[in-house]
Amino acid sequence: MTNKDKFFFFGFGQTAKYLINNLAQSKKKFSFNATNTKRTSFKTFGKKKFKSFKFRDKSYDKKLINELIQADYILISIPPQKKRDVVLKSFGNLLINSKFKKLIYLSATSVYGNHNGKWVNENSKLKGRTKFGLGRKIVEKAWLKFRDLNNLDINILRVSGIYSKENNVLKKISKTNIYVKEKKYFSRIRIEDLAQIIKKMFFSQKKFMVLNASDDKPATNIEVANFAAKLLKIKNLKPVPIAKFKNKMIKEFYKDSKKVSNKNMKNKLQIKLRFPTYKEGLKKLFN
């Protein structure tokens, strides 16, 4: 880590913003470069002001090319579009000849698909069949093939369900008083810990990693909903069958059930989670 490190973000959502906050807490100053789909030429986030370029499908501001080829660290958080990665499609040739130190593609644990509540790790079979899981699985394969062909330090981070102060089960329960009736196992990660994991991965001496980003305690949707209700002192929580939901994304999400191991991530990155389970994470949000 140096005071001349340059970061380039493909996609500027919640994860990238929390990563910037994490980096900004360092005593050293950083030069941030970001790209997103907004049309503004500059964007200020917190105390940091950095360049931001339009990038939407095949259309992008050509000025971003100069910033990209100078980047040390590249984070890709744009999800697959029609089972293809828009960054690899538009900038693959440019990345081959650039001098970046490390690239991280943010995938998702949906690539594992349904394992009926059993444990999975980075070597488990990728059984993703949902719209989310299949798209991620195909794009992961494309990035890994690109990495191997060009000997580039490209890494995959499979992210579990993210929760934060902006988006969490406490808010959902307090508004709806309902939870999905079917018992499914899921793993989670609080956004602050995800930012810490990405930072550690960027500055790790290890290369070509494929890791899970999840906390220590996978739990069922029912366990988490009941814990949130207890914090909120809600006693009339109602179970609703998934068939009653009209939202197709929710129905897709609840097709899978698995416990995601974080052992490799913790060992390789030597990381200590601030919120090792959903209980610490939700208590902190509630308080």
How would you characterize this protein structure?
This protein is an alpha/beta fold. It has a single domain, classed as Rossmann fold. 36% of the residues lie in helices and 23% in strands. Strands 1, 2, 3, 4, 5, 6, 7, 9 and 14 form a 9-stranded mixed β-sheet that branches. Strands 8-17 form a two-stranded parallel sheet. Helix 1 packs across helix 6. The chain is globular. The mean pLDDT is 91.
Provide a brief overview of the structure.
The protein has helices at residues 14-24, 64-69, 86-96, 131-150, 169-176, 191-203, 221-232, 248-253, 263-269, 278-286; strands at residues 6-10, 31-36, 42-45, 48-56, 59-60, 73-76, 102-108, 119-120, 154-159, 161-163, 178-180, 185-186, 188-190, 210-213, 219-220, 238-240, 259-260.
